[in-house]
Write a structure and sequence with these properties.
This protein is α+β, with helices and mostly antiparallel strands. It is built from eight helices and 17 strands. It is globular and about 55 Å long.
Length: about 325
């Protein structure tokens, strides 16, 4: 199978390695990161047993496109994208908050609202909203970056009070977040999509703030189809989403939600191929470009060669 399940490289100048749920991250010379976006797939906080061909390429190339398309707003960590599944960039000192921004009452915010709460992360919400309604204006609902366990909601006031981020830096993060969301919304609209909510991560080198990690992929963002949105809202129907929700749905239908004692259903070749095809469709819908499969050489060898060549230029 032409997919990256895991990597075990030993690059010249390599000083550390971190294996995330879907990313293998190599530290080079103590100042650069080589991030391999593998084809592992996770759902319900569980990594599924079979990799999905081209999934890593889809996520890496969407992120690369949007990082490039927003580089005039805020500098980002990327130095090069030497392979469809690899990004190489600068190591930044990450801020210990994730900047979540919401243009619509969906997901976590909708669940809080349905439970009777009219304030999320210190931001007051008006009465009379229903799930997936557009908000009067986009709201920023930050979360802490937990090293263990789940991220937690936190207000701007609490971030400043606890000294997690300085006031000057936090004001800049808010400004960048709103500008990035505005640009992402415009790009999505050109593709017939609505950018519902997303998250951004930032870091610092010296006094300069950088946008880090990835942006506007289906892993970090929620999209609705614009066509039929108003009609579905008026009829209180679920919105048509562009996300990896279809994977969760397949797992639920087959008795798996990540709970103790549950078995992951068999991932047949047909299932794996269908998920792969859906990811390719996501790529083409979000970017408006035709997905190009790389030459069918050994994918691990291809990635290793590309990273080695890029490292030699650092």
């Amino acid at each position: 199978m032409n997919a990256i399940k895991e990597t075990h490289f030993n690059f010249e100048g390599q000083t550390a390695f971190y294996k995330g749920k879907v990313r293998d991250v190599y530290t080079i010379k103590g100042q650069y990161l080589a991030m391999v976006v593998t084809d592992r797939i996770s759902a319900f906080d569980v990594v599924l047993p079979e990799p999905i061909p081209y999934k890593g390429q889809v996520l890496n190339q969407i992120a690369a496109k949007f990082l490039e398309a927003t580089s005039d707003i805020v500098p980002n960590w990327v130095i090069s994208v030497p392979d469809p599944s690899v990004t190489i960039g600068r190591i930044c000192e990450p801020f210990k908050v994730e900047m979540v921004i919401r243009g619509y009452l969906a997901g976590h915010a909708a669940r809080e609202y349905a439970a009777g709460r009219r304030e999320v992360c210190g931001v007051k919400l008006p009465e009379g909203l229903k799930e997936n309604d557009i908000l009067p204006e986009p709201i920023i609902t930050p979360t802490t970056k937990a090293t263990v366990g789940h991220d937690e909601d936190i207000s701007r006031e609490e971030i400043l009070k606890r000294g997690i981020v300085s006031e000057a830096d936090y004001n800049q993060l808010e400004q960048y977040t709103r500008a990035l969301f505005k640009r992402g919304t415009e790009i999505a609209a050109d593709q017939g999509l609505i950018l519902v909510d997303t998250k951004y991560e930032f870091g610092k080198i010296g006094d300069t703030i950088y946008l880090i990690d990835e942006i506007h992929t289906p892993d970090s963002s929620r999209y609705f189809y614009a066509d039929g949105y108003e009609e579905r809202q008026q009829n209180s129907e679920p919105q048509k989403q562009l996300s990896k929700e279809f994977v969760r749905k397949w797992l639920i239908e087959n008795g798996f939600q990540g709970k103790d004692g549950q078995q992951i259903p068999e991932m047949t070749k047909e299932i794996v191929d269908s998920i792969s095809q859906r990811y390719i469709e996501l790529y083409e819908k979000i970017t408006g470009e035709t997905f190009v499969k790389p030459d069918q050489e050994n994918v691990i060898d291809r990635v290793e060669k590309a990273v080695n060549a890029a490292i030699s230029r650092l």
